[in-house]
Amino acid sequence: MKLNNGLEIPSLGFGTYLSKNEEVKAAVLAALEAGYRHIDTAMIYENEEGVGEAITASGVPREEIFLTTKLWNEDIRNGNAEEALKLSLKKLQLDYVDLYLIHWPAKGYVKAWDQMIQLQKQGLIKSIGVSNFNPHHLEDLEPSGVVPAVNQIECHPKLQQNELLAYCNERDIVVQAWGPLMQAKLFEDETLKAIGAQYGKSTAQVMLRWHLQRGVNALPKSVTPSRIKANYEIFDFELSADDMAKITAMNEDQRVGPDPETFDF
Fold first, then answer.
1. What percent of the chain has pLDDT over 70?
2. Is residue 45 annotated as part of the catalytic site, yes or no?
3. Which residue from 69, 101, 107, 145 puts its CA 20 to 30 A from 27's CA?
């Protein structure tokens, strides 16, 4: 996928939330072996060291890997973007990150955004973006003159975020889906199982394909090598318009994570 600054991001990424260092190292190595070149982490996940060790150990050239990490809320509130980024880089054993995101719209996010613009100019970040931002949060960043490259949000068949997706599409902001499989809550869904049976694919593969076909960048996570591999095997089929419509009809605006308007951490 093309970002609004001319750079590219792999359309399918590998999420590492809730995976600690030793576990995440093995998982990221399995993901890179399966073909993933887009790895997503965050300071608050407490696994940047393991992600960095996996990247180093993989033998995959650094320029082939798209690495995302995130600025946590306390650092946003305290104006510590530069210190936080440099600590993340040290843990990751990297000279730069491909994408740095404001993790939540915590108080101080406008100042943090201005700091990130400067860090990007220094070459420590290739692209800057946000996570869990609604339109009014994005509008607060407009005076900077820099449009976020990415907005990473909770998104899955039960929370399709259609209005926010349209808003971002109009502004060339790539939407990334965290929790794209609704944290395994839809694996036994009868609609998805019936669709998958037509293509010889699992419900997880159907959901990931649905994200891609609607232009959303998906970040599935797993620590099981077979599932990591299966989640990547979605580029050999295409959902019909009818099957896309069936999934679209599943929307209930149902969250499994915090609401950006009411989070309290």
1. 100
2. yes
3. 101
